[in-house]
Amino acid sequence: MLDHIPLEAFRVFDAACRQMNFSKAGRELNITQAAVSRRIKGLEDHLGAQLFTRRGKNLDLTPQGARLIQRVRAALDYLEESLDPFRSVKGGTIAIAASGSVSHLWLGGRLRDFGKENPSISLSLLTSDTSSDLAAETNDLVILYSTGEHPRWDLTLLMPERLMPVASPDYLGSRGLNAATLTVLQIASLDLIDYERFNAHWISFRQWFSRISPPLRMKLQNPRFSFSTYIMAIDAALRGDGIALGSLGLIEEQLADGRLVTVGSECLSTGYGYYLGLPKDKTVTPEARRLHVFLTGSQG
């Protein structure tokens, strides 16, 4: 019966799925490889389904195993969260949340610098492009894409959103282009690199061309490259694949060291920006306030 399966079997299954190796899963859980194998075999016997295919030491999930791990991880995450109210608060730990592009392009290096200056403080970074994840009350600090107001967070501006086309010097040089003198029409005819808009307020090239002054009203060609994330679009520009739409605050490091340069003269200020938030209805720890001061003091 399913209700006779010990919870430990699901923890072992989760570790085996993450490691895709019984020996490594055993080391993670401080049990032997044989113990992992027995627990997985017992779980398969209880369920009447094979969870892994085995090729020597290599593992692959079966379709049944892939479906089960989704449910197991959701259940384990729920149990972990359910225990939070019963745990004593760990001093010196800061939970901060930010989008993927902010984390990768702007925040990561600053957190490393903060960690070097504050070795006794632990940092937990949640990276998500989902608004509900970012604004969750479990976070101590959050960086939000906003106009500056939020019902649960006191927001401090880190950088306004200013958008300009950017490219690598290699891309421009290989085509004999002068970045400063390119017109909007010329930019529109080049190799544009775009990304998918998962937020109605995000701006991609089509919206940028329509909002600059004077707006470009000609029918635009599809971008040469379109990526699922903004990070991938910027990485493509760094490789010299074409022209991306640069959020100048986020890519200040790449602009400062010359890996990217602005193209043309049109810059769009959207009215949005990236804001660092402190919770309104939750006690802010001294560690979180220290990080808040550090980030707002080192903003670009």
Give structural attributes:
300 residues, alpha/beta, D-Maltodextrin-Binding Protein, domain 2, 3 domains, nine-stranded mixed sheet, two-stranded antiparallel sheet, 11 strands, sequence-specific DNA binding
Give a written overview of the molecule.
This protein is α/β, with parallel strands linked by helices. The protein has three domains: 2-86, Winged helix-like DNA-binding domain superfamily/Winged helix DNA-binding domain (Arc Repressor Mutant, subunit A), CATH 1.10.10.10; 93-159 and 273-297, D-Maltodextrin-Binding Protein, domain 2 (3-Layer(aba) Sandwich), CATH 3.40.190; 160-270, D-Maltodextrin-Binding Protein, domain 2 (3-Layer(aba) Sandwich), CATH 3.40.190. 41% of the residues lie in helices and 22% in strands. It has twelve helices and eleven strands. It has helices spanning 7-19, 22-29, 33-47, 63-82, 100-117, 131-134, 169-174, 184-188, 205-211, 230-239, 252-256, 286-297; strands at residues 52-55, 58-61, 93-98, 122-127, 141-146, 153-167, 192-195, 225-227, 243-247, 261-262, 268-279. Strands 3, 4, 5, 6, 7, 8, 9, 10 and 11 form a nine-stranded mixed beta sheet that branches. Helix 1 (7-19) packs across helix 2 (22-29), helix 1 (7-19) crosses helix 3 and helix 1 (7-19) crosses helix 4. It is globular. The model is unreliable at 87-91 (pLDDT under 50).
